[in-house]
Amino acid sequence: MNNFMRDDQNMDVSSASPSNVIDQMISIALFDDAGMKKLLSNNEQNDSSHRTCPIASSTQEKCRITIRSYFSKIDSLRRLAWNITGPKQLERAEMKIFEALKVHFDGYYVSVLNNAQKIWTVSSNLASNNIPIVLIHGFAGGVGLWSLNLDQLCADRPVYALDLPGFARSSRLIFSLDPMEAEKQFVDILEEWRIGIGLNKEFILLGHSFGGFLSTSYAINYPKYVKQLVLIDPWGFSQKPENIWETGRLQRIPKRLRTFSPVIMKVSPLTVLRAAGPLGVSLIKRFRADLHEKFTKLFDDDRILIYLFHCNAQLPTGEEAFQTMSDCFAWAKEPMIKRIHLLDERIPICFLHGEQSWITMKSSFIIQKQRQNTSVDTIKDAGHHVYADTPEEFEIYLKRILYNN
């Protein structure tokens, strides 16, 4: 999940005061790494948490989506009025990001779903004859979060980066309430996008977090042109543990903090950010001060925070789809490790993890033992956002694994 998480916090939740508890819950809502490590399983143990949504009949599903769309649009109007955000503000925020790059990128929309929806895309160096690379961001992100890496990536090959449907500048379509159907919507749109840009040759598919999950699903369903799968700290591979309260530091979490679980798990992850309205950037700055530090190589101001705010202050349909597909945010309802055997054996998988990340590497090593053409690497000082935590090491890694391509 492209949920910038801080790796250096070590709050003692066992002695948390009421005010600290509130701060911690906001921190989790903004995806703090240390907080997630402590509370990623923070939910009530009940049977429903282990079941996926039943597949509704076609008529019921259409009715639910229509109602959901109606109320989402009403909520969007209210939210935009309070947040003073919108497509133009997001466009300007993204432009400020790309102004700092040395290489020119073209930005354009690619129409999908019979021209009903649009996918925002940026690309560069398309004249190169080398194998292109396609970048898929994670949860709550957008193309601007690759800014530390784009100049280097496009130095020797064509680069495409897109905003996933429901996120950033792409259309905010309404997704199915069934997890597998919602996943299929993402994947089918990615294939329509490929056709729309005329990418009719092999390419390298690189996905981070939630983007890594979707990239793998895409490669399983549409393997024809996927030359290589590069997964950066991918979300959604491991199965949810059975006894989550009996492991490690989770045993120290006070019961009063656990009581927030049922409420939090039913709320869209970034609701806190939207509820803050025009104070959203300040909220990010307070709880995620590390974000500014990650991008100081390019920016000496708050433009990355402003960009993230506008990416996520609008209609949260992609966020809602992620919530539909996830189990307590940290796991997928349909984990990829159960389906990875369906991936064409000719497609190599390269896993790259941050050693300090909250996402476990266990499933990656299991997959490495199960199939050929699979490698697992780690970067010592990186957290979940490897590409931003240690951009130089990330670039060295990519040069090594992409050398033959």
Describe the structure.
The protein has 405 residues and is of the alpha/beta class. It has a domain at 84-245 and 294-401: 3-Layer(aba) Sandwich (Rossmann fold). It has 17 helices and 10 strands. The chain has helices at residues 18-29, 33-39, 58-83, 87-98, 150-153, 179-197, 210-221, 255-258, 261-264, 271-275, 280-287, 290-294, 303-312, 317-325, 362-370, 386-389, 391-401; strands at 106-112, 117-124, 133-136, 159-162, 203-208, 226-232, 326-327, 331-332, 349-354, 374-379. An 8-stranded mixed beta sheet has the order 1-2-4-3-5-6-9-10, with helices on both faces. It has a two-stranded antiparallel ribbon with strand order 7-8. Helix 5 (150-153) links the parallel strand 3 (133-136) and strand 4. The longest helix is centred in the N-terminal third of the chain and has 26 residues, at 58-83. The two termini are 27 Å apart. The model is unreliable at 1-29 and 39-56 (pLDDT under 50).
The description of the largest β-sheet is: 8 strands, mixed
Mean pLDDT: 83
Helix content: 25-40%
CATH superfamily of the domain at 84-245 and 294-401: Alpha/Beta hydrolase fold, catalytic domain
Order of helices and strands: HHHHEEEHEHEHEHHHHHHHEEEHEHH
How does the overall form come out from the CA principal axes?
globular
Report the count of strand segments: 10
Number of helices: 17
Low-confidence stretches: 1-29, 39-56
User: What is the strand content?
Assistant: 5-15%
Instruction: Give the strand order of the largest sheet, numbering strands 1, 2, ... along the chain.
Output: 1-2-4-3-5-6-9-10
What oligomeric state is this? Answer: single chain
User: Which class of secondary structure composition applies to the elements?
Assistant: alpha/beta
The third-level CATH topology of the domain at 84-245 and 294-401 is Rossmann fold
Radius of gyration: 20 Å
CATH second-level architecture of the domain at 84-245 and 294-401: 3-Layer(aba) Sandwich
Q: Alpha-carbon distance between the termini? A: 27 Å
Give the class-level CATH name of the domain at 84-245 and 294-401: Alpha Beta
